Each structure stands twice: as structure tokens, then as C-alpha cells.
Predict the 3D structure of the following.
Amino acid sequence: MKIEKIKPIPKYIEKMIHKRDVADFPKQDGTLRYYCYLTKNDGELVKVTVAVKNRCKKWYCKQVAVHGVHSKQCFLRDMVFYYIGGYRVGWHDMGFYSTPRWYEDGLWDNHEDRYFDPWAPLVNKEYLAKFPEYKYAAWELYSGYRIIQYLRLYEQFPQMEYLMKMGLKDYAFSKQLLRKAGKDKRFRKWLSVNRTELMREYYYVSTILTAYRTGESLADTQAFEETKKSFCRDGSFQDIRDMLDGDYKAYFSYIVKQKITHRLYLDYLRACNYLGLDMKEAKNRYPHDFMRWHDIRIDEYRTAKAVKDKEQRAELYTQFASIAEKYLPMQHAKRSGFVAIIARSPADLVAEGNALDHCVGSMGYEQKFIREETLIFFIRAKDTPDTPLVTVEYSLSKKKILQCYAYHNTKPADDILHYVNKVWLPYANRTLKQIAA
């Protein structure tokens, strides 16, 4: 197309625009409107955009842009685009004001066509019938304002006709779907089978391709995609995304099954990272009972952090010793070959765990002790009270033994079990009542 070949608006086109404008804007106020029409310029199909405005009860229109179907640039006149304010049109040549705006000189000029294509209803779409190359373009079914882009895409992907005639016009501009439909006959058949659902509900292109590839329903796939998009837009979950490395499906399924939030999992993940755990291992990444392991890891994290900080470490040991002192009367050393000794510090728990090869020195037991959820007692022989035999976890709220293990989490000997359950536990419960009183 050529600038010198631009012709004035034909009278019949101007009448069509005016009729359409009166129908669309019965009040005919002073707002700026746009319409467009198709014509030829140097043999090329072009779309001419017309600006419309009312002033002093008179109707005005003027050509402001020309886009060619095969041209990379458009022609522009007396028009400017602001990223915030949108399009502006100058009307000095129509006598609206005495001094022209900075962007209007009444001359046509070249510009990038993507920036100067405002929404404008097309008034003579039937003009396309004159072009045999668009006979199968299904342009009759297209009702949008991007007719030039539509025809450009059709020339590149003739299979666009297939999508339009199936009623999938909402997807006609997707190059991914057009490429797939052009190469994959099975995909075209799949689109036909699912056309009713695709017409009823809009789905992401990624949803359509994924549903086709996996065989899952469009609705389920879309729900996953929406969850993923929302999750990925939240910058606070970057640590989780780094861990997942693109494997979102298993993670989303896990949090739904466990009935937890992203933020709760984030707390767990950060605690695990601080503790140096390998999050590639399934037992760490997706523990069977999340809430239990969340609490354990958070307690371990708090203790590990306190150990590194001198002030926090001192406070940890002080709190632990205070609780141990409070329940010291629950120790037992009467009329038996065994004794029950309360843990006096986190270091005692670590030493006990190392000696008996179990987890009392980790897994957050010191935090549970400080919160007075459970107490830890060491069962020793009366004659050798410094030699670890069995470790007991006692619940203060339930007044019962939660765990009782010997070396390597094995069951204690019968005589020790008898002492723990029949001798020490009744004594401990009686003493606890006295402490509470």
C-alpha cells in the first residue's frame, strides 16, 4: 500500500458509519468513537480506521489509520497513543480549535501497526467476498475487530477455517492450537469430540493441550492450571517453587489430601532446609502425617537455632531446667530395683538418644518438654543409675505413657515394663496431683 493511494472516505461508507454510530450511541455525546471499513490500496486489502465525534450538535468523522493485510507498518494521521490515556485524535482541521496539537499536522506518516489499532467495529465485512484467496477463510463467522490480523493468520494457518466452522472462534488466534491441528489428525478429532464443552467454557490453551496429551478432563486440568497460575504469581512461595522444579501436580495433590495451606508447608520447608534435610526424598518432601512432622521439624528448627545463638541457648537451658525442677518430685527410687530420673537439660536428651540409639535427642522433644506437653524420664537400674536402659515419654495432659523404648526402639524387658506401668506410673500420677494442688 502507498500513502499517495489513500482515498477519502466513500460517501456510502460514511453513511454506513453514521447509521451504525447513531444506533450504537443514541445520545450522540462528545465522546470519541472509532469505526473501520475495508478497501483496496495499490491492490492490497486494507482496513481504514475512522474517528467519530460530535460537536455543537454536528457529527464529524475523519480517517486516522490505515492497516494493510501484507504491510508491517501502518499509515497514521493526527493520532497519538499514550500508555495510560490511550488514543487521542486531533480535530484542528475540522475547526474544533485554532491551534493544532503537537501530534497533528494533517499528513500521513508511517508507524508500527501494533500500536495504532483501536477497537473499531467493521461496517463492510462483505467486501471480503471480492477476494477469492479468502473464500475459505470463514470470515463470515468472525465478529471481532482484528480482521487484518485474522486474515494474516489464516494465510499462515489455513486450518483456522476448521476451528471457526466448529464454533471454536475463541481459540482461532492461538498459533499453538493451529499448529497442532495442522499436524495432528487425532487432535482435530479430539477437538470435534470436545467442541461442546470448549464452546460452553473458555479453557487456557495449555489446558487444552495438556488434557489432550494426558486424557484427563478439561475441567480438572483447568482447575490445576488455575491453581498453578495463582501459586506462581505469589512471590512469597518462591522457596517451594524452587524445590518443586516444575513438578507441581504431586505437590498440589498432596496439600489437598493433607488439608493444609501453602504457607503452612512453607514453614515446614524452611525448617527442613535449615536442618539440612534432603527435600528430594519423598519422606521429607511429602511426609505421611504432615501436621505431626510439621510440628516435629519446627521444634527441631527452634532448638537448632537456639543452640547456634548463645543467648537463645542459655534461655533454652534455663527454661528446660525450670520445668525439670517443677516436676522433680515425680522421680522415683523406692522399694524397687529400678529408678526413674527426669531429664534435666537438652544435653541429657542428646546423651540418652546417642546411648540408646533412638530419637529422644532430636525430633523436638526438648520443645515439647518446655511447653509442658510431655516429660522425659530415664529408667535406670538402681545399682547403676548412670547406665541408660529405657526412655519414657509421659503426657502431662493425659497422665499416661506415650512411649517406652529400650535400645534401638526395642521393647523393654518384662521386669522394666512392670516397674514402669505398675510401680512408677501410679506414683507419678499421684505426685502430679500434689504438684497441681
